[in-house]
Design brief:
Length: 112
């Protein structure tokens, strides 16, 4: 059972975003509706559980997105925070362990 602030992964549909570093995510909510947003590429995994590569996916595919459990709603649902900052309700059965750790990309800071 997920605990408060547990780092998890949620199944989603992944597709290319408008920018190379983002992916469009479609997540099934507890009420059956689909929540669509964007997430940084380094918060997404492909169906094999590997962090999404720079050029993947090229079309819509099954994948996973990073999330954090923020609250237990009831025995069937949990509230999770997703990369866009929203907190959404999902079925508890969709929540799984993260397949790999997340390491944000390095950023070089140049002196001006």
């Amino acid at each position: 059972m997920p605990r408060h602030k547990t780092l998890v992964a949620l199944p989603c549909k992944l597709s290319p975003g408008a920018f190379s570093g983002e992916r469009v995510i479609d997540i099934k909510l507890a009420n059956g509706q689909i929540y669509t947003s964007v997430a940084p590429r380094h918060f997404c995994w492909n169906a094999s559980g590997k962090l999404v590569g720079e050029r993947e996916p090229s079309t819509e595919v099954d994948g996973m997105v990073a999330a954090r459990v923020t609250d237990e709603i009831d025995e069937n649902q949990v509230a999770v925070e997703i990369p866009d900052g929203e907190v959404i309700a999902v079925d508890r059965g969709l929540v799984s362990d993260r397949p790999t750790p997340i390491t944000p990309p390095s950023r070089l800071i140049s002196s001006m």
